[in-house]
Design brief:
Length: 206
């Protein structure tokens, strides 16, 4: 919990104020990012449909901390990071309109240093943060009395976990043997079936 959060009363009104401030911070951050050009459009011919360059920096800082020893598994760091970023991009791109916009708002807010400070993150860019700094940021959001922060923590953690542990290369680390192998049901030979029917009819008519 930040010192700013501690200054507000723990009453119903105080909680409402904190919730509104948290929502306003994300909204303001998204607006500032758009106006200042921090929220740049996707790179031309990008293989990503949703994630901008700064979004990928943000996620690249979060992924190793959220997944901890489960990442990168048997893959190299770069290969594993590319796979999960593409998986996250696909998943977020298919979210419903409201959730999609909330994610865009969150990513844009996290790209603005001043908003990151208000949100409890260090001033430094995400690519320059240590794992400890990222972990401290995540814990502050997890334990915050501001609902949008807690929701942001839960949402990001779940998305990252889902996208990583759905990768076949991550199955070993969880003990999951993979989806069951679909064994096709043998299709009986039509000629054989017709022959049996014909024989049966002959017997009945004799």
């Amino acid at each position: 919990m930040t010192s700013f959060e501690k200054t507000l009363p723990t009453t119903r009104r105080g909680f409402l104020q904190l919730g509104l401030m948290g929502t306003a911070t994300l909204a303001l951050g998204g607006a500032v990012a758009s106006l200042t050009g921090c929220s740049s459009p996707l790179e031309q011919n990008s293989e990503y449909k949703f994630l901008h360059g700064k979004d990928r920096e943000f996620l690249s800082a979060l992924v190793p901390v959220v997944l901890n020893k489960g990442f990168p598994g048997d893959l190299s760091h770069d290969v594993a990071m590319k796979r999960i970023l593409l998986a996250l991009d696909d998943l977020i791109y298919t979210l419903q309109y409201h959730n999609y916009n909330q994610m865009r708002q969150l990513f844009d807010a996290m790209s603005v240093p001043a908003v990151r400070i208000l949100a409890g993150a260090p001033w430094a860019s995400w690519k320059d943060m240590s794992n400890k700094e990222v972990n401290d940021f995540l814990i502050s959001w997890r334990d915050s009395i501001i609902a949008p922060k807690r929701n942001g923590y839960v949402g990001m953690s779940k998305l990252i976990g889902m996208c990583w542990y759905s990768q076949p290369d991550a199955f070993v680390s969880t003990g999951y043997p993979g989806p069951p192998i679909q064994t096709p049901t043998p299709v009986a030979n039509k000629t054989s079936i017709m022959s049996k029917i014909s024989t049966s009819m002959s017997v009945e008519n004799s």
